[in-house]
Specification:
The chain contains 9 helices and 8 strands. It is α/β, with parallel strands linked by helices. It has an 8-stranded mixed beta sheet, with helices on both faces. The longest helix has 21 residues. The protein starts with a helix and ends in a 7-residue tail after the last helix.
């Protein structure tokens, strides 16, 4: 398969990305990300609005073609320690345009200052806030990448167990499903983007000493019965594609409609690089999946 010029350019940055993750102080990384977000200019047809969702800072991305009654609730990645990036905003804006919905991005609390369950509580609070605003559960879809994929799954578990009405569907991009190290890669496997020591730091920052086998941090140990339809995308070249396969099989065994797509040669959350054809291909599939399930749920009565 031919590698695009965009992919070659991005792969050339991998050594620098790995170095920055491993050696740049977290405070500096966060400052640089905030700076890039502050300088971001989106297309004129996308409006950004900050909002507090019952005290949780969030940001609306509202496109000109958006249906006012339908919402994509998006949970960003970043190893549970980094906030929203300009690349995430651009990707979610593109996905919202494809879906013709409003998108709400949750700026949840971060570790290690705020370990589990702070981020999970913020994501659940943001979802419940949407319901309080009069948005029907059937008109909400949930998505997240990496750490945000984990939070999407665990938010659904917490909402289900609290008998909250659940969204129409969920899409996870390279989700973290297992903090317990029970999934081991083949000998010699090396993730091209995330050094092993960095992955351990992310895990410890979020867990804060909490049991890694708790289903609300490692959904691979959960009973997934009753969850909405699930789509999982992961890259063939990333460590988390093993989590993607396992969580999808668990969902199917729990009678959840589930599909996994492993993209050949792709790396962790490649969808943020919109110049790559594979990024748009993945986002188009996600948009189609989420929209189809919102349409299917539209005629259902609102759960009490």
């Amino acid at each position: 398969m031919t590698i695009s010029a965009a992919e070659r350019s991005i792969r050339a940055r991998f050594p620098l990305i790995r170095f920055m993750q491993a050696y740049m102080p977290l405070s500096v990384s966060r400052w640089l990300l905030r700076l890039s977000v502050s300088r971001l200019q989106l297309d004129p047809d996308v409006r950004r609005e900050k909002v507090l969702a019952d005290g949780v800072p969030c940001e609306w991305l509202i496109t000109q073609n958006a249906s006012p009654g339908q919402v994509l609730l998006y949970l960003h990645g970043g190893g549970f320690v980094l906030g929203i990036t300009h690349l995430h905003i651009q990707m979610v804006a593109t996905l919202a345009k494809m879906m013709a919905v409003r998108a709400l991005m949750v700026d949840y609390r971060l570790g290690p200052e705020h370990p589990y369950p702070a981020a999970l509580d913020d994501c659940v609070a943001a979802y419940r806030w949407l319901l309080k605003q009069g948005v029907r559960a059937q008109d909400i879809v949930l998505a997240g990448d990496s750490a945000g994929g984990n939070l999407a799954l665990t938010s659904l578990l917490k909402l289900r167990d609290s008998v909250d009405p659940l969204p129409a569907a969920v899409a996870c991009l390279s989700p973290v499903a297992d903090f317990s190290d029970s999934t081991l890669p083949p000998p010699g496997f090396k993730d091209p983007l995330i050094p092993a020591r960095v992955g351990r730091f992310y895990r410890d920052a979020y867990l804060g000493g909490h049991d890694a086998h708790d289903a609300l941090v490692s959904p691979i140990f959960a009973d997934l019965h009753g969850l909405p339809p699930l789509l999982v995308h992961a890259g063939e070249g990333e460590l988390l594609h093993y989590d993607a396969l396992r969580i999808t099989e668990l969902a199917k065994a729990s009678e959840v409609e589930a599909r996994v797509e492993i993209y050949p040669r792709m790396f962790h959350v490649w969808q943020i690089y919109l110049e790559m054809p594979e990024a748009l291909q993945s986002l188009e599939d996600i948009a189609g999946f989420l929209n189809a399930h919102m349409r299917a749920a539209k005629t259902q009565p609102n759960p009490c």
